[in-house]
Write a structure and sequence with these properties.
226 residues; alpha+beta; two-stranded antiparallel ribbon; 8 strands; 24% helix
């Protein structure tokens, strides 16, 4: 990954684009390239409780870059895989979310989103609303709301989250295994040092008061070269 954080230009309402490629901005476990690979190639990640069918196009992302998005990260609900809170993104809350943006095709983004929604991949998403308005609620469940926080190099940045704001849901403690994927992804991005990453995650609702900076730092591998 490039280590330089990229500026994300805000969405201009009413300005639809027709992308062939999009930046998939992951702020959760898919920041870790090893985890994202299963959404593209298929298979069962170590320790996971489900097998991913993968995407129609199994090509790796053309590139991945660190980005900072307007909004806030929080942990909520209970993951049957991780036995703890999942990461969600509230683009309307104050703050900054650190993420990894993966350059993928529009089709790949749709297949990744489908798997996060527990739907079979294979249907192309209609991105007209999210690209013109910045948000499109597809359903009431987790990760069923598409968000376009802006553009990077004139390519739309897209992600998905829950339809509710962080203030409307009970926050839950993320598990050590889940946080390891988040720390691995943020470390691989190369834009933030370990202390900054641990401090950022420890402040997120759900982790705040449950995880200290020192406890999260201890989740990192001893050597960056690993």
């Amino acid at each position: 990954m490039s280590s330089a954080r990229r500026p994300v230009r805000p969405v201009t309402p009413g300005r639809p684009l027709r992308p062939g490629s999009v930046w998939y901005a992951s702020y959760g476990s898919n920041m870790d390239p090893a985890r994202l690979r299963y959404y593209l190639s298929g298979g069962r990640p170590p320790g996971a409780g489900r097998t991913f069918p993968g995407s129609r196009d199994r090509t790796p992302p053309r590139k991945s870059v660190p980005v900072e998005l307007p909004g806030a990260l929080y942990f909520a609900t209970e993951s049957p895989v991780w036995t703890g809170g999942r990461a969600f993104y509230d683009p309307q809350a104050p703050g900054t979310v650190r993420a990894c943006a993966h350059l993928v095709t529009e089709q790949q983004f749709g297949d990744i989103a489908a798997q996060e929604m527990y739907e079979p991949p294979g249907a192309d998403l209609d991105l007209t609303v999210v690209l013109s308005e910045g948000r499109h609620v597809l359903g009431p469940g987790r990760y069923e709301t598409l968000v376009c926080p802006g553009y990077l190099e004139d390519v739309p940045v897209l992600t998905f989250t829950a339809p509710w704001p962080l203030s409307a849901v009970r926050h839950t403690r993320p598990s050590p295994a889940y946080l390891r994927h988040l720390t691995a992804g943020l470390r691989t991005a190369g834009a933030w040092d370990d202390r900054t990453i641990a401090s950022y995650l420890s402040r997120a609702p759900g982790a705040a008061g449950n995880w200290t900076v020192e406890q999260i730092t201890a989740l990192f591998p001893v050597s960056r070269a690993e």
